Amino acid sequence: MSDVESLKAEIKKLSAKATQAKMDLHDLSEELPVNWSSILSVAQKAHAAFSELESKRQYLQELDKT
To answer: What is the CATH number of the domain that holds 21?
Structure first.
């Protein structure tokens, strides 16, 4: 498997992880004020997931240019 193919597979997994983090944040928002104390940790997980996903997508774009 090439580097690009393995990066695309990793991006697919990260995308699923980011989507789940987004749904967790959404679910939490619908339940507020219940579990309000977990807002920060859930938001940080979503932020980290999307940050990593964006970083890998940018790297893939750089690889595609070469």
So the answer is: 1.10.287.660
